[in-house]
Amino acid sequence: MDKVNIGLSPKARQKVVTVLSGVIADQYVLYTKTRNYHWNVTGEDFAQYHELFEKQYSAIDEDIDDVAERIRALGTKTPATLAEFVKSATLKEHPGKYPPAKAMIANLLADHEAVIRSLRKGIEVCDDVDDDGTEDFLTQLMEKHEKTAWMLRATLEN
Questions:
Q1: What would the mean pLDDT of 43-65 be, rounded to a whole number?
Q2: Where are the beta strands (DSSP E) in the chain?
Q3: CA-CA distances (angstroms) from residue 46 to 38, 146, 157?
Q4: Secondary structure class of 93 (helix, strand, coil)
Q5: DSSP characters over 63-85
Q6: CB 147, CB 109: distance < 8 Å
Q7: DSSP for residue 129
Q8: N or C: which end of the chain has fewer CB within 10 A?
Q9: Of 79, 66, 150, whose CA–CA distance to 116 is shortest?
């Protein structure tokens, strides 16, 4: 990590990498949960939810890659195992639980909102260490989650 010369101290980069490691862990849990719901949704609105979940997990998959590449750009290896993700994630899975479609939507909404709150904290850390690049990156990621949360919230309305 000391060989990287991008205007951030190793200590500052480590703080940011810690934030990003938590972000990628939560993204991976959210991806897995969304994919699970895509596979297991049932009911009269099956086709609508099946397609919605597919679009969402595909977008999260792209975001995971972007977070990993941001970590690499800062000069460290990215966490990349399920064990690492589970250890660092704040989001929780619910193995063996297959709720009704509306509950799936509500669960994903709660997770996206939790990610948004976490990203806001991460943005503050980036601001504190003057990492404008990662601050901007996390802001854009947060905006994606805000849009997804809005869409999920609208889906739950009568």
A1: 96
A2: none
A3: 9, 24, 17
A4: coil
A5: HHHHHHHHHHHTTSPPP-SHHHH
A6: no
A7: T
A8: C
A9: 150
